[in-house]
Amino acid sequence: MTRILSTAAAALFLATAGLVAVLPATARAQTAAEDPQIEIVEMVQGAENAPVTVMEYASFTCPHCANFHEGPYKQLKADYIDTGKVKFVFREVYFDKYGVWASMIARCAGPEKFFGITELMFKGQSEWARAGGDGAIAGELRKIGLLAGIENDALDACLNDAGKLRALVAWYQENATADDVSSTPTLFINGEKHPNMNYAELSALLDEALAE
């Protein structure tokens, strides 16, 4: 069953100690008053002028999202994104603090490495997400960052960035509210909302959109 975001759980998560408490125990940062205005980069693959845009809302801790990225997404990339037919936009959903930590590491090296790190996150999800307590999970996520070529100091800076954390959660909340996203993965094809689906269903919808 597709994971559903509980409204009550989301409200509690977003309100927790000004969000700084969701950082790893070793990562505490400056106050919000010291943070400059932070712009969140939209993570995009494919040709900017592609005739069809697919937007995915996904959580790094969602098993159904991991399954989507191990299967339908890879076929989508080969058949539609890499061939210039589809522009793909990835937007994170935060069910819990671990999803935020994963997002901060995935974004740590910028757009150039984001999708590669995302692939590692989903591929190893069953391991890092079940590593145990906060310290163990943070440690496993750091390993993924190191494997992707991010230096220790850069990882520390990313995980210490409380301003970025607040900006990411506010960005997620604004987007999910505007698009009425309550479960993951949720797909939008040229702005039309769709639930999780297999590749045959997705391909049929894309071919229909391309024919219009």
UniProtKB/TrEMBL annotation:
InterPro entries from the UniProt entry: Thioredoxin-like_fold (IPR012336), Thioredoxin-like_sf (IPR036249), Thioredoxin_domain (IPR013766)
Protein name (Swiss-Prot/TrEMBL): Thioredoxin
Transmembrane annotation, as ranges: none
Keywords on record: Signal
Biological function: May be required for disulfide bond formation in some proteins.
Keyword flag NADP: no
Top-level taxon of the source organism: Bacteria
Residues making up the signal peptide according to the UniProt record: 1-29
Thioredoxin domain location: 19-211
Pfam family, one: Thioredoxin_4
